[in-house]
Input
Amino acid sequence: MSLTIRAVAFATAALAVVATAAHAHVTLEQQQAVAGSTYKAVLRVPHGCEGSPTVRLRVQVPDGMVNVKPQPKPGWELSTVRGKLATPVSGDHGAQITEGVREIVWSGGRLLDEHYDEFAFRGALPNKPGAVVHVPVVQECEKGVERWIEIPAAGQNPGSLKFPAPSLRLTPRP
Ligand SMILES: [Cu+2]
Output
């Protein structure tokens, strides 16, 4: 294969990768954090549902993430659902944390497809170095819903998922 054809093939492949990346889905701004640390989860919403504006975002708080507080957003109502933790977590001074915020809902706003926005919450991450934590998000629009809830099976390439749940990797304490 001549050099030029190879260069063109390479450029096309690179463009495809960029295009896919540019058509990013709902993802976390910071995709790596220290296990057990306090983490600010910034969910990036780069588009609506097939062009329709986003009017509601439902976020499932990862198991083992505690002391969760969402960030209010002007123009949006904010509500949370509290519930029992799958596994109690030892908090400050050895106190056992057995329940907390499990779901966060921003609603009542209108984020146009041609605009971009971020939805944030903070909390203490599970103390599981090396684990990948998923934050499933349901994005409701005026027309349609996108469920960013897919979690890769062991060994599966996350890039192969159509609606991957936003995720981050927990690193060991330095
Ligand atoms: Cu997308």
